[in-house]
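Re: weekly structure request thread

Next one in the queue (445 aa):
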Amino acid sequence: MAGRRTDTDMTKGNPMSIILKFTLMLLLGNVAQQLYNIADTIIVGRSVDPLALAAVGSTGTVMFLMFGTSNGMVSGFSIVTSQRYGAGDERGVKASVTNGLYLSLIIAALITIVGLVFMRPLLVLMNTPEPIFDYALTYISTICAGIVCVILYNYCASLMRAVGNSLMPLIFLICSAATNVGLDIWFIVGLRMGTFGAALATVIAQGLAVIPCIIFIYAKMPALRPSKEDWKLNPAIIKEQLKLGIPMAIQYGITASGTVIMQSAFNTFDYVAVGAITAASKFQGIITMGMFSVGQTMAAYAGQNYGARNMLRIRQGVKSALKIYIVYSAAAAVFAILAVPKILWIFFDSDVDVSLYIPWAMPYIIECAVCYFFLAMIFIYRHSIQSVGFAHIAMILGFVITTTLPSHQTRWRGLQQVSQAWLSAIIFSKRSRKAGQKKTAVCLL
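Done, posted below.
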């Protein structure tokens, strides 16, 4: 299996070099994916009105709840794939592919049904302002209806990453991002479809990314290509996938629930505050994709090496990732603080007074930027912990983040709580790591 040109055996070679290259590819792909939401936000803000911009932003945490929960689940499924790949179990790899697909489709159906039934009450519970409520409901309901496209892409991409291929998901996402921008312009500017058009463009573009993923896996990745007998239900594999996937889904869901609580508090302010934080968070989303990317890298890296029972190499990889992100976090913090006042205008039409939004956007960015390295540490530790079988610790970590977020807040207190949640979580993860060393040979630092 190690000789496949489209695969990467992460159990061999220099850990820092492997992690850096793999993370770079993932970062480019994740930034492309983030452009889906950025394109929606910019085009809606400049072509519809500031209320529509605020509406799209006000649903961002609900999207995170749906996407995060589903992505956590499929990431857990793919950890089984990476472990079997590292162990050289070809039949186990292919069985994990098919059974993970069955589970992913079930998850997509459940999220769609529950989301569409409870979306209106949820937006009411979140204190969504009346002027933007209809915009917000239309946008997030459309996304929810098409979430199967998002889940299938994330599953295919996570499978490719599990066996060390981060290049092809990048290429497919870049093409999909370009499609998304084109559809945004057509639907929103040309057809005047408003927030419905923005959501529809995102769903279609994500769905189109699934097709080349499937074709490539069948044509170029025999390690993942199932044969007829591999399509049988395998209770042992399903049990293993659910054992990893459910805690990861709960972990993401708990964390996302915290952001929903935070957004509901922000929604008690006026639409200027909501719009400012929306624009700033979209910009910050690109920067923090670096932290998310290293987490995905460590999931594949630790999973493969855990399958190969190479515990020392996992420890070396964690140390290498931390060194890389000391530099990245410092540079990203400086860039974010300096850039926000200069780029905020991009999200608004020319007749909007952007100076009204900066006093809200800057405190949000500053409070978050000073804690970027702590966020990177969370992703590095959390995904490594998950991949060596301690998914329940990562789930508790998500709970720590949520309980640190506020249900009510003043202007400054609310913004400070984001960075405080990250810091609290990393303190917990360090303590959990030390406790875990007493139970396993894996030492992550």
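The chain has 15 helices and no strands. Residues 405-426, 431-443 have pLDDT under 50 and may be disordered.
Next request, please.
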